[in-house]
Amino acid sequence: MNSTNLSKFNNTFYKPGGNMLTRFLWYFTNVIWFNSAFPISFIKVFLLRLYGAKIGSGVVIKPRVSIKYPWKLAIGNNVWIGEQVWIDNLAQVTIGDNVCISQGAMLLCGNHDYKKQTFDLVLGGIVLEDGVWIGAKAIVCPGITCHSHSVLAVNSVATSNLESYKIYQGNPAVIVRDRIIQ
Fold first, then answer.
1. What is the model's pTM?
2. How many Å separate Cα 144 from the centre of its chain?
3. Which CATH entry fits the domain spanning 40-156: 2.60.40.770, 3.40.50.1820, 1.10.260.40, 2.160.10.10?
4. Mean pLDDT in each 10-residue stretch from start to end of the chain (182 residues)?
5. What's the distance, CA 109 to chain centroid?
6. Alpha helices in 2-127 (DSSP H)
7. Count of beta carbons in the 10 Å neighbourhood of residue 100
Protein backbone atom coordinates (compact mmCIF):
# COMPACT_ATOMS: atom_id res chain seq x y z
CA MET A 1 0.00 0.00 0.00
CA ASN A 2 1.34 3.45 -0.95
CA SER A 3 1.62 6.31 1.49
CA THR A 4 1.67 10.07 1.20
CA ASN A 5 5.11 11.47 0.44
CA LEU A 6 5.10 15.24 0.82
CA SER A 7 8.74 15.47 -0.33
CA LYS A 8 7.37 14.77 -3.84
CA PHE A 9 4.81 17.60 -3.70
CA ASN A 10 5.20 19.91 -6.69
CA ASN A 11 2.97 22.86 -7.47
CA THR A 12 5.26 24.59 -9.97
CA PHE A 13 2.35 24.53 -12.44
CA TYR A 14 0.53 27.10 -10.28
CA LYS A 15 0.89 30.73 -11.33
CA PRO A 16 -0.59 33.06 -8.66
CA GLY A 17 -0.47 36.13 -10.91
CA GLY A 18 1.20 39.42 -10.21
CA ASN A 19 4.96 39.53 -10.10
CA MET A 20 7.07 38.62 -7.08
CA LEU A 21 7.34 42.27 -5.95
CA THR A 22 3.55 42.76 -6.19
CA ARG A 23 2.92 39.60 -4.16
CA PHE A 24 5.50 40.71 -1.58
CA LEU A 25 3.95 44.18 -1.26
CA TRP A 26 0.42 42.72 -1.10
CA TYR A 27 1.44 40.41 1.74
CA PHE A 28 2.36 43.39 3.95
CA THR A 29 -0.61 45.48 2.76
CA ASN A 30 -2.90 42.60 3.75
CA VAL A 31 -1.26 42.24 7.16
CA ILE A 32 -1.28 45.97 7.96
CA TRP A 33 -4.61 47.13 6.51
CA PHE A 34 -6.83 44.03 6.29
CA ASN A 35 -5.75 41.38 8.76
CA SER A 36 -5.62 43.96 11.55
CA ALA A 37 -8.10 45.93 13.63
CA PHE A 38 -8.12 48.79 11.06
CA PRO A 39 -11.84 49.65 10.67
CA ILE A 40 -12.14 51.99 7.65
CA SER A 41 -13.63 50.22 4.60
CA PHE A 42 -13.11 52.84 1.90
CA ILE A 43 -9.32 52.66 2.35
CA LYS A 44 -9.47 48.86 2.05
CA VAL A 45 -11.58 49.15 -1.11
CA PHE A 46 -9.07 51.64 -2.55
CA LEU A 47 -6.16 49.30 -1.80
CA LEU A 48 -7.92 46.28 -3.31
CA ARG A 49 -8.58 48.25 -6.51
CA LEU A 50 -4.96 49.40 -6.53
CA TYR A 51 -3.88 45.74 -6.55
CA GLY A 52 -6.26 44.80 -9.36
CA ALA A 53 -9.50 43.72 -7.66
CA LYS A 54 -12.78 44.68 -9.31
CA ILE A 55 -14.87 46.27 -6.53
CA GLY A 56 -18.34 47.81 -6.73
CA SER A 57 -19.80 50.57 -4.56
CA GLY A 58 -21.11 50.28 -1.01
CA VAL A 59 -18.68 47.50 -0.03
CA VAL A 60 -18.04 47.11 3.71
CA ILE A 61 -14.94 45.20 4.83
CA LYS A 62 -14.67 44.66 8.58
CA PRO A 63 -11.38 44.20 10.53
CA ARG A 64 -9.18 41.11 10.49
CA VAL A 65 -10.07 40.00 6.96
CA SER A 66 -7.48 38.06 4.95
CA ILE A 67 -7.42 38.05 1.15
CA LYS A 68 -4.84 35.94 -0.67
CA TYR A 69 -4.67 37.64 -4.10
CA PRO A 70 -6.76 40.75 -4.87
CA TRP A 71 -6.14 40.40 -8.62
CA LYS A 72 -8.24 37.20 -8.45
CA LEU A 73 -11.20 38.93 -6.78
CA ALA A 74 -14.35 40.60 -8.13
CA ILE A 75 -16.91 42.05 -5.69
CA GLY A 76 -20.26 43.61 -6.69
CA ASN A 77 -22.21 46.41 -5.05
CA ASN A 78 -23.40 46.57 -1.42
CA VAL A 79 -21.37 43.59 -0.18
CA TRP A 80 -20.61 43.03 3.49
CA ILE A 81 -17.48 41.11 4.48
CA GLY A 82 -17.45 40.35 8.21
CA GLU A 83 -14.64 40.16 10.73
CA GLN A 84 -12.09 37.37 10.34
CA VAL A 85 -13.32 36.30 6.90
CA TRP A 86 -10.65 34.42 4.94
CA ILE A 87 -10.80 34.64 1.16
CA ASP A 88 -8.16 32.10 0.14
CA ASN A 89 -8.51 32.86 -3.54
CA LEU A 90 -5.82 30.80 -5.21
CA ALA A 91 -8.36 30.85 -8.08
CA GLN A 92 -10.92 33.48 -9.09
CA VAL A 93 -13.56 34.48 -6.53
CA THR A 94 -16.57 36.37 -7.89
CA ILE A 95 -19.05 37.90 -5.45
CA GLY A 96 -22.32 39.37 -6.76
CA ASP A 97 -24.37 42.28 -5.45
CA ASN A 98 -25.94 42.40 -1.97
CA VAL A 99 -23.93 39.46 -0.62
CA CYS A 100 -23.19 39.04 3.09
CA ILE A 101 -20.19 36.98 4.19
CA SER A 102 -20.45 36.73 7.97
CA GLN A 103 -17.66 36.67 10.53
CA GLY A 104 -15.16 33.84 10.39
CA ALA A 105 -16.41 32.43 7.08
CA MET A 106 -13.89 30.93 4.67
CA LEU A 107 -13.88 30.86 0.88
CA LEU A 108 -11.32 28.20 -0.01
CA CYS A 109 -10.20 27.87 -3.64
CA GLY A 110 -7.50 25.27 -3.00
CA ASN A 111 -7.39 21.73 -1.72
CA HIS A 112 -5.21 18.63 -2.09
CA ASP A 113 -5.76 15.34 -3.87
CA TYR A 114 -5.52 12.93 -0.94
CA LYS A 115 -5.64 9.95 -3.32
CA LYS A 116 -2.25 10.83 -4.79
CA GLN A 117 1.02 10.09 -3.10
CA THR A 118 2.21 13.57 -4.12
CA PHE A 119 -0.79 15.31 -2.45
CA ASP A 120 -1.30 17.44 -5.59
CA LEU A 121 -2.81 20.91 -5.36
CA VAL A 122 -6.39 21.09 -6.68
CA LEU A 123 -7.91 24.48 -7.56
CA GLY A 124 -11.45 25.71 -8.17
CA GLY A 125 -12.96 29.17 -8.37
CA ILE A 126 -15.91 30.26 -6.25
CA VAL A 127 -18.98 32.23 -7.33
CA LEU A 128 -21.40 33.83 -4.87
CA GLU A 129 -24.32 35.13 -6.91
CA ASP A 130 -26.53 38.10 -5.95
CA GLY A 131 -28.17 38.04 -2.52
CA VAL A 132 -26.18 35.10 -1.11
CA TRP A 133 -25.57 34.92 2.64
CA ILE A 134 -22.63 32.89 3.94
CA GLY A 135 -23.17 32.41 7.68
CA ALA A 136 -20.61 32.82 10.43
CA LYS A 137 -17.79 30.24 10.38
CA ALA A 138 -19.25 28.60 7.26
CA ILE A 139 -16.92 27.21 4.57
CA VAL A 140 -17.31 27.31 0.80
CA CYS A 141 -15.09 24.69 -0.87
CA PRO A 142 -13.24 24.99 -4.21
CA GLY A 143 -15.29 25.03 -7.40
CA ILE A 144 -18.61 25.90 -5.73
CA THR A 145 -21.30 28.25 -6.99
CA CYS A 146 -23.80 29.55 -4.46
CA HIS A 147 -26.72 30.52 -6.67
CA SER A 148 -28.91 33.60 -6.24
CA HIS A 149 -30.12 34.25 -2.69
CA SER A 150 -28.98 30.90 -1.29
CA VAL A 151 -27.99 30.76 2.38
CA LEU A 152 -25.21 28.68 3.94
CA ALA A 153 -25.99 28.51 7.67
CA VAL A 154 -23.57 28.99 10.57
CA ASN A 155 -20.73 26.42 10.69
CA SER A 156 -21.94 24.67 7.53
CA VAL A 157 -19.74 23.42 4.68
CA ALA A 158 -20.70 23.81 1.01
CA THR A 159 -19.19 20.85 -0.86
CA SER A 160 -21.59 21.11 -3.81
CA ASN A 161 -23.40 23.96 -5.54
CA LEU A 162 -26.22 25.67 -3.62
CA GLU A 163 -29.57 26.14 -5.37
CA SER A 164 -31.24 29.56 -5.60
CA TYR A 165 -33.50 30.62 -2.70
CA LYS A 166 -32.63 27.57 -0.56
CA ILE A 167 -31.18 27.46 2.96
CA TYR A 168 -28.41 24.92 3.56
CA GLN A 169 -27.11 23.61 6.85
CA GLY A 170 -24.64 20.98 8.05
CA ASN A 171 -21.45 19.26 6.96
CA PRO A 172 -21.85 18.57 4.15
CA ALA A 173 -24.55 21.21 3.77
CA VAL A 174 -28.01 20.01 2.74
CA ILE A 175 -31.23 21.90 2.01
CA VAL A 176 -33.27 22.48 5.16
CA ARG A 177 -35.92 24.87 3.79
CA ASP A 178 -36.75 27.50 1.19
CA ARG A 179 -35.62 31.09 1.58
CA ILE A 180 -38.67 33.31 1.36
CA ILE A 181 -37.94 37.03 1.29
CA GLN A 182 -40.83 39.33 2.22
1. 0.97
2. 10
3. 2.160.10.10
4. 93 94 97 95 97 98 98 98 98 99 98 95 98 99 98 98 98 98 96
5. 7
6. 20-29, 41-50
7. 18
